[in-house]
Each structure stands twice: as structure tokens, then as C-alpha cells.
Amino acid sequence: MTILVTGGAGFIGANFVLDWLADNDEAVVNLDKLTYAGNLQTLCSLQGDQRHIFVHGDIGDSELVAHLLQEHQPRAIVNFAAESHVDRSIHGPEDFIETNIVGTFRLLEAVRAYWGGLDEQARQAFRFLHVSTDEVYGSLAAGEPAFTETHQYQPNSPYSASKAASDHLVRSYHHTYGLPVLTTNCSNNYGPYHFPEKLIPLMIVNALAGKPLPVYGDGQQIRDWLYVKDHCSAIRRVLEAGKTGEVYNVGGWNEKPNLEIVNRVCALLDELRPRADGKPYAEQITYVTDRPGHDRRYAIDARKLERELGWKPAETFETGIRKTVAWYLDNQEWVQNVQSGSYRDWVEKNYAGRSA
Ligand code: NAD
Ligand code: TYD
């Protein structure tokens, strides 16, 4: 038996593949375009492992995907492949439309043709799990209840709009063609192998490099943080026992303002790798111009997943953030290798003009 994972060289996809193969022997075909966010070094422990078949390619390449499906006959697909960074979607939305919308559409078309050719038993057992985000629901005001699966879609950034479109396409393939789909909408992840353009790894990397820690606006925007391995365990559980056509929200009940996150990262670094001058890393915090259209608050109500499938996160924010900071301290080589010229160009582009 085999599963096909897309985007499995990215942050969450790679954690998923590593955890999957640590736990069972079912092979993984890993289709990834290796954009700036995809990194084969993350998967180097799988070199020579016959259970991991890496394919460099695009989910929007219909011919390639059709060929892979015929060749490997996967019993399930987990679709992580996406452009995922809100700030990049503001600077240049086109890649988001291309991969998240057109790519998902082409993938669904190839999967529909493949699934239609399976025998009845295999058709029944087949699953297409689409990995999505809480950002499709828009922004919450203080005191509003957390997002449930029936919350209205109100995406506010080109990223969240493109993910919302892909969720709708996935839903329609179930409703119209009967494709056995599952969708998960998860809150902000953090943990090992997180590309240092996102809040937590950027703060760790900048702090250690003696650079400013750029907090957008007043730093009081709230995100709901989940340790990446808990997201992966939720996906495995939904794949195993989720009801087709259903949506499951995934979250850790860890709502925190950005400034609190940055201060926590600084305090952990003060403890684990104190600055040479003995001063606190929090001195490096710099307030910069806010992100346009910045969503104020996200919060996930994950009770459906807990009630129906018995899933709960294993980490608290305290245990997860400590593991994460320690991982970055122990894996400086990975960090240096992902900070390529294009990474430096991005940092220049995003933070130039956001004066303190
Ligand atoms: P990421 O940007 O780290 O990784 C995305 C991966 O997809 C990369 O390896 C990239 O090379 C690959 N990719 C991009 N375009 C592709 C294409 N056209 N064909 C094949 N591969 C392609 O993203 P991530 O943080 O790991 O997120 C994975 C998924 O989870 C995304 O769908 C994202 O929307 C969703 N999600 C992320 C978070 C989060 O906090 N990071 C939270 C909820 C949901
Ligand atoms: P991010 O990690 O980009 O995730 P998302 O935008 O998908 O939630 O950002 C998390 C929060 O941190 C978000 O409110 C924006 C804020 N932020 C900063 O304040 N400074 C930064 O340099 C970055 C990258 C993000």
C-alpha cells in the first residue's frame, strides 16, 4: 500500500512524511515542486529508504500526476502543496492563484480520472485529504467565539482567498462526483523545519544573528498556535477515521498575541543561549509598519475533531515552544542552508520601507 503526499518537502509536509515513516511501513510517494519553501535536506534521513519515493514536479502538471497515480496506485492522497506565506501573497499573488487554485483543480481532475478507474472496493476505500487553514474564515473580533467548521468563509488576503477557493473546489468534487474527500482547517503551526520567513523561526534566527525582531503594528494580533507534530497526528487520525465530505478544524487552544510569542522566544533564548553581552534578546524587538489588511485574530474550535475522532494535541504551547527553540539551536546548519540568496532577497524586499 502507498500514499501520495504533495508538498512533502515543505514545513508541515516533511514533518508528516518523517512521522509517517517513523510509525509504519506504508510507502510514501512525495511530489514536490521544490519552490523556495521546499527543502530536500529536511528529508535527508530518508536517503536510501525504499519506502520514500521523491518526485520533483508540480501538482498542476496533469500528465505527470496521472502517470504517478497509475504507476503507484495510491490508496490515499494528502495535499499539502501550496504557496503558504501571507506577506508573499501581498507582494505577488500570482503564484498563489497558480498553485493553490489552478494546481489544486488540476490535481483534483487527475485524481477524479484515476479514482473513477478503480474497482468498487478501492473506490470506497480511497481518500483525498486536503490540508487547509483557519485563515479562510477571516478575522475575529475580541470575545467572538472561535471558528467552528460552519463559520462563514471570509478570506482577507490573496493567500487565504486562494486557499478558500481550493477548499470550495475540493468540496464540489465530493458533492458533484462523489470523490471521497476530507478537509482539515488548521491554525498556525510551529516547530522543526519551519522556514524562517514566518514569525517564530524568523524571530529565533534574527535574535541569534543580533538583528532587529520586526513586530508588525502593535503586536497585539492573535494567532492560535499548534505544534506541527500535533497537526500531523490530527491529519493521520482524519485520514484513518474521518467521514468523507466532512471538514475538521484542527487547533491547540493556544491563542496568543504576537508580542507575547516574541517575548517568550526571547526569554527561552536568554535561558538557553544568553547573549554575549548578558543583555536580554527582547532589546532587539522593533515595531515596524503593519501588514496591509492584517487579520486581527484567529481562533480554532477543535471540539468536533476531539468529540468525533478522539484527537487531542500532545503538546502545550510551553512544551512545544521550548522544543522548537532547542531544535533551532541544535540545527544551525539547516538554518544556514535554507538562507540562500533568494531568502536574503525576500527579507530585503519585505522589511525595507517598514521603518521602525
Ligand atoms: P510550506 O510553504 O512550508 O511548504 C509548501 C511545500 O509545497 C513546499 O515544499 C513547496 O516546494 C511545495 N509546493 C509549492 N507549490 C507546489 C506545486 N505547484 N506543486 C508541488 N509542490 C509545490 O507550507 P507549509 O507551512 O508546510 O503548509 C503546508 C500546507 O498546510 C499548505 O497547504 C498550507 O496552506 C497549510 N497550512 C499551513 C499552516 C502553517 O501554519 N504553516 C497552517 C494551516 C494550514
Ligand atoms: P506568519 O508567521 O506570517 O503567519 P500568518 O500570517 O499566516 O498568521 O505571521 C504570524 C503573525 O506574526 C501575523 O500576525 C504577522 C506577524 N508577524 C510579525 O509581526 N512580524 C514578522 O516579521 C512576521 C513574519 C509576522
UniProtKB/TrEMBL annotation:
Its EC number is 4.2.1.46. The keyword Signal does not apply. Residues 4-324 form the NAD(P)-binding domain. Keywords: Lyase, NAD. InterPro entries: dTDP_Gluc_deHydtase, NAD(P)-bd_dom, NAD(P)-bd_dom_sf, Sc_DH/Rdtase_CS. It catalyses: dTDP-alpha-D-glucose = dTDP-4-dehydro-6-deoxy-alpha-D-glucose + H2O. One of its GO terms (molecular function) is dTDP-glucose 4,6-dehydratase activity. It is an enzyme of class 4 (lyase). Its cofactor is NAD(+). GO terms for biological process: nucleotide-sugar metabolic process. Belongs to the NAD(P)-dependent epimerase/dehydratase family. dTDP-glucose dehydratase subfamily. This is dTDP-glucose 4,6-dehydratase. It comes from Pseudomonas inefficax. The lineage of its organism: Bacteria, Pseudomonadati, Pseudomonadota, Gammaproteobacteria, Pseudomonadales.
